[in-house]
Each structure stands twice: as C-alpha cells, then as structure tokens.
Specification:
394 residues; 7 strands
C-alpha cells in the first residue's frame, strides 16, 4: 500500500474516533472488575491487567471498559499534527492545509491542558486508568509520571511555536518544577536518576530519568535558569555512565529490568539529542553515536522487520517501527538511513495495519494481537508517519 493511502486511512480512523480508544493497560477501568471485591487484591489487579494485555481477543466491550482519551496519546497526536502543519507551510497539503491543521492543533492543545493533573509543583500528566506495576506499585488513575509529562511538554512546546500562545508555553515550562520538586532522585556516580513517578522506589528506569532531563532542558532553553541545566546534566551523566561499551542500554537497574529493547533505546537517544539541542552542550555526542549504531544494527532485520529485543525478534511491538522514524528525525540521520526506514515502514504497513486504518498492537509468530489501541499503536504511528511525511518532503 502506498504511504499516502496508509496514512490517510490511519488519520481518518483516529479523527472518526475523536482520538479516544482503548489501551493495553486499561483493564482496571472495567466496570465489571470495579464492582468486585477482587479490586482490593494486588495479585488480582495484576492478573486482570495482564490478561487484558496479553489476550489476542479484545474483552473490553464485554467487560465494560470505556474508550477514553489518554494524555500521552493526545500529546503524540498533537506532535504529529504540528509536523503536518510544518509540511503544509512548505506547500505539502495532502493531509490538510495550514488553516485546517491549526484548528486541530488548537483543539488537541486545549484537550491536553484540560487533562493536566492538579496539585503539584508544576504541570504534569498521568494515565486515565489505575495501573498495577508488578506487585510493588499501584499507580492510581492520573498519578503523574515523568514519561507522560515529557511527551506532553514536547507537544505543547511544538504547539506554542505555531500558535504563539504564551499560556501554553508557560504551562509546559512549569513542568520543570514537577521534575525537581515532586520526583525523587537517586545518586549514581557523579549524576543522578530521576524517578518514574511521584511514588517512592521506582527510580531505576533509565529512559524515564532521561525524559526528566529532557523536560528540564526545554525549561533551560526558554528560561536560562542554571539549576535546570545542572540537574538535567546530572541525569544525562548517569544515563551515559550506564550505557554499555557496545552502545546499548538495559531498561533499568533492577534484576528484572535487565533486558535491552528497541523503543526504549530510541527514547534514550531522542532525550539525549533533545538535551544537546536545547542546551548547546554537545559533550555527549559520542554516546549518541554509539547508541544509534547499536540501535540500527541490532533491532532491525534485513527485510525491515523490527525486533523487540536485541537478541529476540518476537513479539514485534508497534512502538518499535514507530520510534525509529521519530528518533532518526530528531537525530538528523533520517536521509542517511532512509533505506532502512522505508523498509521498516513498508513491512509495518503490510503486516500490522488493518484495512480499517488502525495499526495492530503486536505481531507474533502465533496468534497476533490485532486489537486497536489508540495511545500505544495509533498515536505512535500517527506521529511517526507525520515525521516521515515531513522528512521525505524536505
């Protein structure tokens, strides 16, 4: 299928759904489960979520899980529309004129602002469902995380560049105070690791810490507050220290977090590059170069098939092909790696897109999960394809 047809089908599907949908982790939103006493038992919550996530059959209608907006998903759609606006400004209007796209940008921006979680030192966002992470943590609905917040911050700043709405910019920049005052920090060498969320004890995830640095780097770019630069740099130092000699990163520091996967590697590289662009501190370029080489050499097969892990292909997660396009664009290596990106995108369209326009969650050797997830699948691919469209038309 041609790129334009594929992207138009995805765009139409998401707009028809008003960007709302299901999520791999939204099982606890089930009205059936919430009516049961099992909801108070951590093992039951974990099993229920994992059952929904792993099942190739969508049980959500049957068990009354509503379609909803998700802040990270809305941020990804907003980022994508900003890229389409940029393309339209250069005369490329297959997916909308500047006038129609700016209306979508304003709509999604306001939606994202309305989803902001109140009561913290700065703007922050969480997810629209309770989420049990192993037995250790229950993240209640709208518990703010640095991951969701980082995506929202970048999207709002890109929106500001188009609309020049100072309220949007100031809201985004205030997230730096959320990072500094509401997240915890764990010393690592001469740097530190930011926590994933406001909860104690989830301070071992490398990409989450780098996303904290990414937020701070945006605040430094616009406000030139030295504290933002210093605290961002410490997170970057720690993450680069944790990079292995071959350029790879494990997901996190706990024994159960020792895997190496494709899209979190992409997140790391994106955050490091964003830090350098926002601060003009290019001292970490060698880590980006090593990481990018490892990323492209270990996570993609000759036919473009994206691998989940460095040493294992399946299950192929839709995040994997989506993130490499965005990361290549951010690192300004898109043109150099166009052949790889074309092969990967073509494979994904042929194997992971429904005729209805949406993208599947996971491609497996056995029974694939062909459920439409708005944040996890469609928002990520929408943003990726918007980046791709902009890049090939430069």
């Amino acid at each position: 299928m041609k790129f334009n047809d594929s992207f138009q089908n995805l765009k139409s599907y998401c707009e028809d759904q008003n960007f709302a949908g299901w999520d791999p982790y939204d099982g606890l939103n089930s009205k059936v489960f919430q009516a049961l006493p099992l909801k108070h038992w951590d093992i039951a919550r974990l099993a229920w979520i994992q059952g929904f996530k792993r099942s190739p059959i969508n049980l959500r209608k049957l068990l009354l899980v509503p379609k909803q907006h998700n802040s990270k998903g809305i941020a990804l759609f907003l980022l994508g529309y900003c890229r389409l606006y940029e393309a339209a400004s250069q005369g490329k209007i297959e997916f909308g004129t500047s006038e129609t796209l700016v209306e979508k940008i304003k709509y999604l921006t306001q939606l994202l602002l309305d989803m902001k979680v109140e009561g913290y030192a700065g703007a922050c966002w969480g997810y629209n469902f309770d989420w049990q992470a192993r037995r250790l943590f229950l993240f209640k609905k709208n518990t703010p995380t640095v991951v969701a917040t980082a995506f929202c911050v970048e999207a709002l700043i890109e929106s500001y560049k188009i609309t020049q709405d100072e309220n949007v910019l100031n809201t985004a920049l205030s997230s730096a105070e959320f990072v500094l005052q509401d997240l915890s920090r764990t010393e690592h060498g001469t740097g530190h690791i930011f926590s994933y969320s406001i909860k104690d004890g989830n301070n071992t995830v490398i990409n989450a810490s780098l996303l904290g640095a990414k937020i701070l780097s945006y605040a430094y770019k616009y406000k030139k507050k030295q504290t933002y630069l210093d605290m961002a740099k410490k997170a970057v130092v720690a993450a680069c220290d944790l990079q292995e000699d071959d350029g790879s990163w494990i997901y996190g520091l706990l024994p159960v977090q020792s895997w190496k996967d494709s899209f979190h590697t992409g997140f790391n590289l994106d955050a490091l590059e964003t830090y350098q662009q926002n601060t003009d501190d290019t001292a970490f370029q060698k880590y980006i170069d090593k990481g990018w080489d490892y990323y492209t050499e270990h996570f993609f097969e000759a036919d473009g098939k994206p691998k989940y892990y460095h040493d294992k292909t399946y299950p192929i997660d839709i995040h994997c092909p989506a993130q490499v396009i965005v990361t290549a664009s951010k690192l300004n290596t898109f043109t150099k790696h166009l052949e790889l990106l074309e092969r990967t995108l073509n494979w994904t369209i042929e194997n992971m897109q429904s005729k209805k326009g949406f993208f599947y969650y996971q491609y497996r050797q056995g029974l694939s999960s062909k459920i439409s997830y708005m944040r996890w699948s469609n928002a990520f691919m929408f943003n990726a394809m918007a980046h791709y469209y902009l890049e090939i038309n430069k």
